[in-house]
Amino acid sequence: MRLVHSPAELQRLASEALVSGTIVGVVPTMGALHEGHLSLVRAARDECDLVIVTVFVNPTQFGPSEDLDKYPRSLEQDAILSEAAGADVVFAPSAADMYPAEFQNYVETGPLAERLCGASRPGHFRGVATVVLKLLNVTRAARAYFGEKDYQQLRVIQQMASDFNLPVEVVPVPTVREADGLAMSSRNRYLSADERKAALVLNQSLDLAAESWARGERGPEALGEGVRGVIESEPLARVDYVEVVDPVTLLPAAEGSTRVLIALAVVIGATRLIDNRLLA
Amino acid sequence: MRLVHSPAELQRLASEALVSGTIVGVVPTMGALHEGHLSLVRAARDECDLVIVTVFVNPTQFGPSEDLDKYPRSLEQDAILSEAAGADVVFAPSAADMYPAEFQNYVETGPLAERLCGASRPGHFRGVATVVLKLLNVTRAARAYFGEKDYQQLRVIQQMASDFNLPVEVVPVPTVREADGLAMSSRNRYLSADERKAALVLNQSLDLAAESWARGERGPEALGEGVRGVIESEPLARVDYVEVVDPVTLLPAAEGSTRVLIALAVVIGATRLIDNRLLA
């Protein structure tokens, strides 16, 4: 496995591969890799000739009061895990190489990026879309793998790919959970033992909504209230948002929809976690 | 020569060419082709294996009070001229195919796009950058040709290519002029006979500045005042802007700079024309 830091070097390598017919797959990450990321790498390995894992804690997607500085960084370990999962290349650029002094163009995202996490984290998806666009161009990827845990991110990237005619297939990969149901996230390591237990309310509340749905409940308001009730019963948890939305537009689901996404963000202690469930 | 309307069809065709080692060159145009455009096509022909001329009057780069509806359209003639200059493909998509209903992502341009024409035409370069990004992705071009007449556009595209790590070389091509010095432009056909004569002040004023420069004048203010004086002596001409700027940043040139760009926009009757001169 090769570790590359220079965007220009990686683009050269990827372009040479591309023009000789190689299918490049990319897994964009911020590192601190867990099983969720590794399931993306394995999916890429199954479907592509050259698998590139990018590891870059992207400053433009963090707000001024967010956890950019303390975000976990573990490149050596990430490289070992990536290789074991089938990566051919780990690309770990510097912020200075990705955002040189004269840098000035961004992706201006639209309505998909405005609600849910976009409302809680202004500018977040502008940063995500911009760095993903750059990473797709550097890696020349034909296939790009994104986890469904970050469902809004997935939709934002899918829409950007469509709007900009990007020559890439965006491949969604199901959320990977711990044995007790907590969705894997690099931010789970911020949790104390008590918070770790409290964090189970995210998945539990979604399970409850799935049961209501299975019993025939189709009212977005009732579904949302049920989820909110479970979370509010946990003293260490504070709801950021709970929303029942259309899975394509991410706008509030219409009464009686036959496909909805329940998306939520919950703050446990000082750690903001997200999860979601598609009901159909 | 092939005429293609569908973005998906062209992207398929271009991708097949790319993965077998073909160098694709693109000349993005709004049609109404003149010798300026054709010099771009010939440059692409000299350097590329597959030459694609795009013909698309891009609605997102026109302001609400601008000439989108009356902008000249002449696809049949454009296809004939493109073929004669060496194009392999003319790509002429519909606005509905380029901007479907759910379209929502744009390029957010930076300081390079704010002054000069960006100040007179708010949102213009956001539309230009967005459509060029799309066209580069659809055509998979390794080389993209832009005329120096639209100097700010050239800089905006160069910076976008750099910022987004686009796998393309942006190739500048010198301005082509009529025998009497008027820079070729599709908008020249809006001019009446009297206006056509009056329009010579653009190039004449720049010639005068070049003479001052050759005599040693290095003061941006003096150079700009000279240009402005020539244009204001023409009753049919109204200055939109005359600016003496750094050719890279497009910010006002410092006193004593050894390389400046004089950029100007002048309204002749109801037609807004631009021109520029690099002095070094």
Can you describe what's shown?
- Two copies of one chain form a homodimer.
- With 280 residues, chain A is of the alpha/beta class.
- Chain A has ten helices and ten strands.
- Chain A has helices spanning 7-19, 35-47, 75-85, 95-98, 117-120, 124-139, 151-163, 193-198, 200-214, 220-232; strands spanning 2-4, 24-29, 50-55, 89-91, 106-108, 143-147, 169-173, 237-245, 260-268, 271-279.
- In chain A, the strands form two sheets. A six-stranded parallel sheet of chain A has the order 1-4-3-2-6-7, with helices on both faces. Chain A has a three-stranded antiparallel sheet with strand order 8-9-10.
- In chain A, β3 (50-55), α3 and β4 form a beta-alpha-beta unit.
- In chain A, α6 (124-139) crosses α7 (151-163) and α9 (200-214) runs antiparallel to α10 (220-232).
- The radius of gyration of chain A is 19 Å and the shape is globular.
- The first copy, chain A, starts with a strand and ends with a strand.
- The relative contact order of chain A is 0.13.
- The mean pLDDT of chain A is 98.
- The A-B interface holds A 7, 11, 15, 18-21, 102-112, 126, 129-130, 133-134, 137-138, 140, 159-160, 162-167 and B 7, 11, 15, 18-21, 102-112, 126, 129-130, 133-134, 137-138, 140, 159-160, 162-167.
- β5 of chain A pairs antiparallel with β5 (106-108) of chain B.
